[in-house]
Amino acid sequence: MAQWRLIVSQSLKISNIVPRNIPPPTSRLQPRVQTTLLTSTSAMLNFGIIGTGWITASFVTSAHSTKKWQLRAVYSRNSSSASDFSSKFSSDVAEPIKSHTELSELASDPEVQAVYIASPNSLHYAHAKQMLEGGKHVILEKPATSTSAELDSLFALAKSKNLFLIEAFRHLHEVNFKILKKELSRLGRIFGGSLNYAAYSSRYDNVLKGEVPNIFNLDFSGGSLVDLGVYPISAAIALFGAPKSSSYSPVMIATGADGGGTILLQYDGFTVSILASKIYTSTAPSEVFGEKGTLSVPTITDIESVKFLDAKLKGKATELGGKRCDLNLKEEAELFAGIIEGADWAAAKELEALSRAVIEVTESCRRANGLTFKVEKGQ
């Protein structure tokens, strides 16, 4: 497996993505809230969106709350969907929000500087490519692309045009994840970890009825590993670096996709086990075990608390966590605005290395289990 070394930036504080010994995620996103009217300013980043689902609405709300972003355009193939989405935020911004039904219109819109993409997984590559070719910075919801080859192509295109391409792993920028990372030094020698994210998806009800929703359809680059497993996988890589090897034992469902499973990440001297599922729910915490104690969080995303269980005090818990942000995507929106406005290429390179390491794990695990996406067939 290729190894990607990160330049650690003070703003991100994500570990070097290289295998090493370490020495001395779930509620839904918050519902939309009304934000203060944004005034047009040259310092504001005007952005467009592709995808009008709940995650997009959450990003727009969070972005507006930072006073650094202003929604200027909405793309949807359905004009009424674009208009309906725009109307939800029209009172938040000083300028009218445009609705586009053609991707080319958004890509060539001179008033749009960046585009947030939350379309179906299999469309991420084509949508991001068109926006980059149009001169837009791109923020991609996870998983950024279906394959590592697609990701390589997009990063090369972004570099050639002096543009930023950023994958949105929101949970890594939350205050309590940063605390979890910082407090690893309490543990001394690392013995292992257990990171869990299992939440029943209502889309599985459709599968039980004989339907094939996109999220459980390999033709649309679906499955639990890439849709939900990337949360704990990216967390492990942010905490410990890229693993030496990885394996996946999936639970297969009628659609031919994986509904969940167990992932093992092997490091020098320890193993991180990951439970990820969209077909059942687990309330098990996520923990990192060390010589001097254990760090425990109730979920790997939307972390409410960070506890240190002291080995010498029979597991007595000390709370280390801070107050979680009310808007789950605000911290990433703040960070991404700073990267783009400040031309912070070092921070962007760090996030790029993280994205590359994550897709190397998921791609290896998929292919070892015959989970082949439509885009890969015939290659």
Automatic annotation (TrEMBL):
<dbReference type="Pfam" id="PF22725">
    <property type="entry name" value="GFO_IDH_MocA_C3"/>
</dbReference>
<dbReference type="InterPro" id="IPR036291">
    <property type="entry name" value="NAD(P)-bd_dom_sf"/>
</dbReference>
<protein>
    <submittedName>
        <fullName>Oxidoreductase-like protein</fullName>
    </submittedName>
</protein>
<feature type="domain" description="Gfo/Idh/MocA-like oxidoreductase N-terminal">
    <location>
        <begin position="45"/>
        <end position="166"/>
    </location>
</feature>
<feature type="domain" description="GFO/IDH/MocA-like oxidoreductase">
    <location>
        <begin position="204"/>
        <end position="295"/>
    </location>
</feature>
<dbReference type="InterPro" id="IPR000683">
    <property type="entry name" value="Gfo/Idh/MocA-like_OxRdtase_N"/>
</dbReference>
<dbReference type="GO" id="GO:0000166">
    <property type="term" value="F:nucleotide binding"/>
</dbReference>
<dbReference type="InterPro" id="IPR055170">
    <property type="entry name" value="GFO_IDH_MocA-like_dom"/>
</dbReference>
<comment type="similarity">
    <text>Belongs to the Gfo/Idh/MocA family.</text>
</comment>
<dbReference type="Pfam" id="PF01408">
    <property type="entry name" value="GFO_IDH_MocA"/>
</dbReference>
